[in-house]
Design a protein that fits this description.
Elements lengths: L2 E8 L5 E10 L8 E6 L1 E4 L2 E4 L2 E7 L8 E6 L4 E6 L9 E10 L3 E3 L3 E7 L12 E6 L10 E7 L10 E5 L2 E6 L8 E9 L10 H12 L3
Length: 218
């Protein structure tokens, strides 16, 4: 991956609207496309928080749609998009734009709200040369009332103070110009005052779907 640029919009209902612009270079090799794997649950302080994901679109930078398939792993709590046409081989540089919504992405503590999100993802099996993200928070979130911690590497890595970050008004920009090796990623923790966003309200299906699965005959 030559470059990934992400735009993350933090919504009032504790969801995220995310758009990723990905530049992938196959070189002389012939491939069908790329895989993008995302977690559909977060594990924080021993508790699991479900974060359902809804895909909006997968296109190139000219907004031409790609063929893709989607699989969900209920045990690993991941969603995978296999992007590309199984009947078409590509080589060289190819561009991908993925837009999706993450529900229940923020968590509430006694006196604060936290966005804890793996910005780049740790499921890539190829290196990433460069990563940049723009995180747009709701009005009321600023550098003065937020605690920002950014981590790079594999799961469990320490905070990386070398990562470039800039907070202007309610927009945080994160840049990383080193290579992320396969399995490595960049994770953001942003803690800000409670009450700026609304806690997530799960749908009826999300709350009781596992019960309905056993009660409704197929």
């Amino acid at each position: 991956i030559k470059n990934i640029e992400s735009e993350v919009v933090v919504n009032q209902d504790s969801s995220l609207n995310i758009t990723e612009n990905i530049i992938a270079d196959c070189g002389v090799a012939q491939k069908h496309g790329i895989f993008r794997v995302l977690p559909t649950a977060q594990y924080l302080e021993g508790a699991r928080q479900e974060s359902p994901i809804e895909l909006l679109s997968i296109t190139d930078f000219d907004n031409q749609p790609y063929k893709f398939s989607e699989t969900r792993d209920r045990f690993k709590k991941t969603i995978t998009w296999k992007i590309g046409d199984e009947n078409v081989l590509v080589s060289g540089v190819n561009n991908y734009r993925i837009s999706y919504v993450v529900r229940n992405a923020l968590r509430e503590t006694d006196n604060a709200t936290e966005l804890y999100w793996n910005l780049s993802g740790n499921f890539w099996d190829i290196p990433i040369d460069r990563y940049k993200a723009m995180i747009r928070f709701p009005q009321g979130v600023s550098e003065q009332n937020s605690e920002i911690n950014i981590y790079s590497g594999r799961y469990g890595s320490d905070q990386d103070f070398s990562i470039s970050r800039q907070f202007t008004d309610n927009i945080l920009t994160v840049s990383y110009d080193k290579t992320l090796e396969p399995g490595e990623g960049i994770t953001l923790s942003s803690v800000f005052p409670k009450g700026i966003v609304e806690p997530y309200r799960p749908t009826f299906t999300e709350k009781y779907g596992h019960i309905l699965y056993y009660l409704i005959p197929i």
